[in-house]
Design the sequence.
């Protein structure tokens, strides 16, 4: 595809349930990022993947959050036992490499935890 | 720790007014600096970026930004705004050669026609 795609675009879930958010980066981009944007807040860095290197998970807010990237392409962000404070827009971005290249953002997944 | 501060959360201007959005960052080493923009209903996209060289960088749609190292600032400017510039603007920084990008909280600009 031409750009970064994310699915679902919207997700409503009940507190305590697990959710999976998917990101398809631009073909050929080796770097992939996940961010969280809460209402009125900036983008909060969550996790970064670069090629086959170990991901930088330093931004994950708790052990309920995890992410994987299969085959260096598609990535899944999983939130276990969701809480109301997890409600936010989750953005994925990719870039050609990790070294300060322009990031291309997807449309985001809007998560609402009831 | 790195941080980015955007001075204004909301700005309202009339068309043809001049714009300056403030951005200051906190980081001890050399950095790369970015401004991203999100137009209503659209994805975040790059407006302009600074890596090295001329501290005055020009981006799309007539925007420019100046890196002032001594002030740790990277303010965004446009001499004459248009209604179509209504959007949210984010300043971002990462260390030179690095990957972890820190974003500011964003500034919502509304331009009155």
Sequence:
């Amino acid at each position: 595809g031409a750009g970064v795609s994310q699915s679902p675009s919207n997700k409503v879930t009940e507190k305590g349930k697990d959710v999976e958010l998917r990101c398809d980066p631009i073909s050929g981009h080796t770097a992939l990022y996940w961010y969280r944007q809460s209402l009125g807040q900036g983008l909060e860095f969550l996790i970064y993947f670069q090629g086959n290197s170990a991901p930088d998970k330093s931004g994950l807010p708790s052990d309920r959050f995890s992410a994987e990237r299969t085959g260096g392409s598609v990535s899944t962000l999983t939130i276990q036992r969701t809480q109301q404070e997890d409600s936010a827009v989750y953005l994925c971005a990719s870039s050609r490499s990790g070294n300060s290249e322009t990031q291309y953002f997807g449309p985001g997944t809007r998560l609402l935890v009831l | 720790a790195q941080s980015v501060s955007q001075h204004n959360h909301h700005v309202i201007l009339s068309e043809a007014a001049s714009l300056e959005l403030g951005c200051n960052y906190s980081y001890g080493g050399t950095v790369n600096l970015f401004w991203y923009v999100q137009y209503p209903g659209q994805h975040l996209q790059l407006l302009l970026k600074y890596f090295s060289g001329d501290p005055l960088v020009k981006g799309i749609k007539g925007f420019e930004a100046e890196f002032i190292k001594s002030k740790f600032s990277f303010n965004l400017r446009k001499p004459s705004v248009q209604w179509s510039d209504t959007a949210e603007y984010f300043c971002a920084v990462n260390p030179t050669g690095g990957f972890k990008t820190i974003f500011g909280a964003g500034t919502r600009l509304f331009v009155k026609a």
